[in-house]
């Protein structure tokens, strides 16, 4: 595939500003079920590319990072070898000698050295061929045909997990930013890839579905689950899981039974649990503040103070009361559906629905009696 000669063409093109959910912006690991499934399918399709058969974990992670940092329209990534090594937890020489050449030979990743005004090398212009082919096919349902918002969300997940950090104090560093570094630990890329796959496989409560079947002696289902995600042996998965436990990314728990025996084992991701807990606390605080602020939460105004054109008297014209009431019911249902996800509000909402139905029936009877 021919690549343009202009350095500026590899930079991501600016698109329309996205209106993201504040909670999703504050907590990158809080993903909806649809978004998690979409990103999981994209990463699986990328790693299942036949061109990556037999590739090392560092090579596979390099392709994922390049894909997440690529421009939405151009499919290009402008990056330096040193910066890519910081994302992988490897030194620059290892990336230059052991990561990029095999990917170029397999034609899985095309890279071109960009030069500056005086001919000095300024970085790399990289294109993931699997993504380029998916975009060129025009198939909007292809797993790698992510939208601009989905591609940005994938990058935010990677940043939360193993972004190298920038500036004094390594601001914005991910959970595994300290894994690897100058010593060039070969297992750093494997741990990063395992953490990403576990987050995309996890549920909203932070647990990861475990594999079934027979297990080798002395190994647990959590070890086999990590091994299945990475495509390695169970003993190798156990080593990766042990390192992730040390960094607080993963944890294993054992449920107890009523008789005191050992129950079902769980593989939990504490960062995902903490992110969802903080997000639910934020939503609960917003609901409490809205209730204490004195704003009208009636169905007629849909949760906002009545704003009318007759000097703020709050009276609704006769021809608009029925339409406003129906619109308010839709908005109040939306508020209830968003709050109903919190377990502490479930009982309150069910009681309010029962009481609301009773009061509406009484109001209808009074209206009929007044008309008669």
State the strand order across the main sheet: 1-3-2
How far apart are the first and last residues' alpha carbons, in Å? 81 Å
Shape: globular
Helix/strand-derived category reads mainly alpha
- Helix count from the secondary structure assignment: 13
Average pLDDT level: 74
Low-confidence stretches: 1-26, 296-368
What profile does the largest beta sheet have?
3 strands, antiparallel
What Rg do the Cα atoms give?
Answer: 27 Å
- The number of distinct β-strands equals 5
Strand fraction equals 5-15%
Run of helices and strands: HHHEHHEEHHHHHEEHHH
Helical residue percent band: 40-55%
Explain what the structure shows.
The chain starts with 21 loop residues before the first helix and ends with a helix. With 372 residues, the chain is mainly alpha-helical. The longest helix is centred in the last third of the chain and has 26 residues, at 346-371. It is 49% helix and 9% strand. The protein has helices at residues 22-26, 33-47, 57-68, 81-88, 92-105, 129-137, 148-162, 187-201, 221-230, 234-246, 270-292, 321-339, 346-371; strands at 76-79, 109-115, 121-128, 251-256, 262-268.
What is the strand and helix layout of this fold?
Elements: H1 22-26, H2 33-47, H3 57-68, E1 76-79, H4 81-88, H5 92-105, E2 109-115, E3 121-128, H6 129-137, H7 148-162, H8 187-201, H9 221-230, H10 234-246, E4 251-256, E5 262-268, H11 270-292, H12 321-339, H13 346-371
Antiparallel strand pairs: 1-3, 2-3, 4-5
Helix pairs in contact: 3-8, 4-5, 8-10, 9-10
């Amino acid at each position: 595939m021919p690549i343009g000669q202009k350095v500026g063409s590899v930079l991501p093109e600016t698109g329309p500003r996205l209106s993201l959910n504040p909670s999703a912006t504050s907590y990158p690991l809080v993903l909806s079920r649809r978004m998690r499934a979409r990103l999981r399918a994209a990463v699986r399709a990328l790693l299942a590319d036949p061109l990556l058969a037999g590739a090392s974990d560092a090579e596979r992670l390099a392709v994922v990072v390049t894909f997440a940092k690529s421009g939405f329209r151009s499919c290009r990534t402008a990056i330096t070898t040193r910066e890519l090594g910081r994302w992988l937890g490897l030194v620059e020489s290892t990336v230059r000698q052991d990561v990029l050449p095999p990917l170029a030979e397999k034609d899985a990743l095309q890279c071109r050295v960009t030069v500056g005004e005086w001919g000095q090398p300024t970085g790399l212009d990289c294109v993931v061929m699997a993504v380029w082919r998916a975009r060129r096919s025009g198939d909007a349902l292809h797993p790698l045909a992510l939208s601009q918002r989905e591609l940005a969300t994938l990058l935010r997940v990677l940043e939360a997990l193993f972004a190298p950090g920038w500036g004094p104090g390594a601001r914005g560093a991910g959970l595994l930013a300290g894994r690897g570094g100058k010593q060039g630990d070969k297992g750093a890329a494997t741990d990063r890839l395992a953490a990403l796959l576990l987050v995309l496989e996890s549920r909203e409560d932070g647990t990861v579905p475990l594999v079934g079947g027979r297990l080798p002696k002395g190994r647990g289902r959590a070890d086999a689950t990590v091994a299945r995600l990475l495509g390695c042996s169970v003993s190798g998965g156990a080593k990766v899981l042990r390192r992730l436990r040390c960094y607080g990314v993963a944890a294993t728990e054992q449920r107890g039974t009523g008789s005191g025996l050992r129950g079902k084992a769980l593989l939990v991701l504490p960062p995902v649990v903490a992110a969802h807990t903080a997000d639910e606390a934020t939503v609960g605080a917003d609901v409490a503040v809205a209730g204490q602020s004195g704003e009208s939460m009636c169905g007629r105004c849909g949760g906002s103070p009545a704003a009318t054109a007759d000097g703020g008297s709050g009276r609704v014209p006769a021809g608009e009361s029925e339409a406003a009431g129906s619109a308010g019911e839709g908005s109040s249902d939306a508020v209830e559906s968003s709050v109903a996800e919190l377990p502490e509000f479930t009982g309150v909402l069910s009681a309010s629905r029962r009481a609301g139905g009773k009061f509406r029936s009484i109001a209808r009877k009074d209206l009929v009696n007044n008309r008669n």
